[in-house]
């Protein structure tokens, strides 16, 4: 009898693991879908750039809300029923995108964002709750490969394939298929239903859900499109910041005086979790910021095609997976303290962005290979260490809340990183062009001689002298623009490196302070 029960438990865990990974894979495809389809949506559905930006804001806000709200939702409905419902909604929303129009796409994108955040938190929480702690490093390695590697490292390559295939509607077949497979193979098991008294609390959660959603949307609007804002002088952004603080303060006030909390705030009483949440903000800044920079740099400065830019980032995915495995192996089988991998990962990322800052428009694929490999290795060590440190002291019940908060903070750090880098690049590029133009027009005999030589060479192809001068001026402007972009993005890479240099002492101070605070 015990043998059959043990076999049944093994079968249940095996099918559950496959189902969870298919659900995570569906979200991985969705994360990159909007970036892939910007040009196609703009042409087919006649969406403006402002509407495309609004789609990104809605999806990000929905995902953040799903991460933070899933813990309270699970206290109201059965976990198995919640998981199945999310998969069904996810699949239907994916299929609906194939026949969507400009009026319905915003609502579908919101539904997809909420389901994505809730599914990710629920899937990772079930990995911690349904499987022994001794094998968690390897399980979390698999989760990171599917959820992180495919979205951060393979996004550009997938984008290139679908752009060149010119088939954007067919993309939505894949996430819907993954969600349906996850639903069909999810093993049936009876879970305890929430108490009727807790279910009655839903009506009391509605004001807090609304305030939380409003605060998240306002924050997503602020940080999602950083290159478009004049942060200090924009009138609307001042009101947006006021709205963020108003909604957040109102939510915190109601939450503080409520008997039944929307979030389990006691998770912050554990030192590892509080430390991991703080570091996740810094890690998100570096991971998402560097991913954005590498994609822009390869296309605009190194002038690679979509396929070449995508292939250039793939080796980083391989080194990321390898170092994830190494970290998981040493933590699980050699009982290494995960904190050891944190400085190693940070050091590798700093070195990688420094190598990126040395590139220019003459660099090729081989020049980009080494920094991409080093960056992937640093990401692997840092992410595995953070995951194991953050959730080491969290018990089963509040695990979903803890994962939601951790994931939301990492995403928020990434959004802030991209917004800061976009704003810096858009402003510094103009300054760099002005400086270079001023240097070239100040009067240089070597420059005049070089331009005369170029005009003479152009005239040898039999255009008129005026056409040759115009073409010469165009080539000069192009060279100035490429050089300004090179300087701008090289400095942006150094910003990420310097951010880590200043953040490391803060991380150490926070670790010491939290340890002393919780001991007292």
TrEMBL record:
Membrane-crossing residue ranges in chain numbering: 12-37, 57-74, 86-104, 141-162, 168-186, 206-223, 235-254, 275-300, 312-331, 338-356, 368-391, 492-514
Domain of life: Bacteria
GO-annotated cellular components: membrane
GO terms of molecular function: transmembrane transporter activity
Keyword entries, A-Z: Membrane, Transmembrane, Transmembrane helix, Transport
Subcellular location: Membrane
Principal subcellular localization: membrane
A Pfam family per the record: MFS_1
Membrane topology: Multi-pass membrane protein
Keyword Protein transport listed: no
Protein name (Swiss-Prot/TrEMBL): DHA2 family multidrug resistance protein
Provenance organism: Celerinatantimonas diazotrophica
